[in-house]
Every structure is written in C-alpha cells, then in structure tokens.
Amino acid sequence: MLSAIAQELHIPTIERHIFLCADQTKPKCCDRNLSISVWEYLKQRIKDLNLETKVFRTKANCLRICQAGPIMVVYPDGVWYHSVDAQVIDRILEEHILGNQIVQDYVIYAPDSCMIGSL
C-alpha cells in the first residue's frame, strides 16, 4: 500500500523538494492569507510547468526564520529564500528549478558547495 502511494506521488522520480512556510498556526513571518495565496500559486505553477513528477512540494507550518516571509527552502540544494510571492516563485521555478541558477536576489542561505543538478 505505501509503495503504491509513493508511486502515485512520483516519489521515485522526484529530484527536488520545495518547502514553503504557509498557513501558519501563529503567523510571524508574514500575513497568513498571503502565505496561503502563495502556496496555492506554487501548486498551480508546478502543475502548469509540468513539474509534478520532478518537484515535490510541502506546506510547512513554520520554517523558524519568522521574518520576511513567506520563507521557502529547496532541497537537496539547501537553498533558503525570503519574501516569496508569485513573482519570486516564478523566478525560483524558472531560474533555480529549471535553469539550475540560484535566485541570488532572495537568498537567505545557500551552501558554498551548492551543486545544482539539472532536471
């Protein structure tokens, strides 16, 4: 049963996992409604770009930065982004996820040894 769920979610082909701080119990980094709209936009853009078999997404209650949110982290790259809105999502998906270039304008942290692979 678990194996079937993993297959249905495309777990074997996932190359990146995006976590977005959204729908917080106690909103600190940004307005809760903003975070929810950004989350909905992220889901739609992943679908629009046909990335559902390569990019997994998870809504995180809190990523503990608690400023300049919504906060997003992309794994396995370990790149953390701040002030994520629809425009920033578009840039991260196009430049980082598809183009393998970190979006420096919004980086909180990126490992020095960050080796971005191609999708």
What does this structure look like?
The chain has 119 residues and is of the alpha+beta class. The protein has one domain (2-109): Glutaredoxin, CATH 3.40.30.10. The protein has three helices and five strands, in the order H-E-H-E-E-E-H-E. A five-stranded mixed beta sheet has the order 2-1-3-4-5, with helices on one face. The relative contact order is 0.19. The model has no long low-confidence stretch (mean pLDDT 92).
Largest sheet features: 5 strands, mixed
Q: Give the CATH topology.
A: Glutaredoxin
**Spatial arrangement of strands, main beta sheet:** 2-1-3-4-5
Give the terminus-to-terminus CA distance.
28 Å
**What is the count of structural domains?**
1
Strand content of the residues, in percent?
A: 15-25%
Shape: globular
Overall pLDDT confidence:
92
Number of helices: 3
**Low-pLDDT residue spans:** none
Rounded Rg? 14 Å
Question: CATH class, anyone?
Answer: Alpha Beta
* Protein structure class: alpha+beta
**Level-2 CATH architecture:** 3-Layer(aba) Sandwich
Return the string of H and E elements.
Answer: HEHEEEHE
- What share of residues is helical? 25-40%
Total strands: the figure is 5
CATH superfamily: Glutaredoxin
Question: What's the quick description here?
Answer:
The protein is α+β, with helices and mostly antiparallel strands. The protein has one domain (2-109): Glutaredoxin, CATH 3.40.30.
SSE layout and pairing:
Blueprint: H1 2-8, E1 16-21, H2 32-48, E2 55-60, E3 72-75, E4 79-81, H3 86-98, E5 107-109
Parallel strand pairs: 1-2
Antiparallel strand pairs: 1-3, 3-4, 4-5
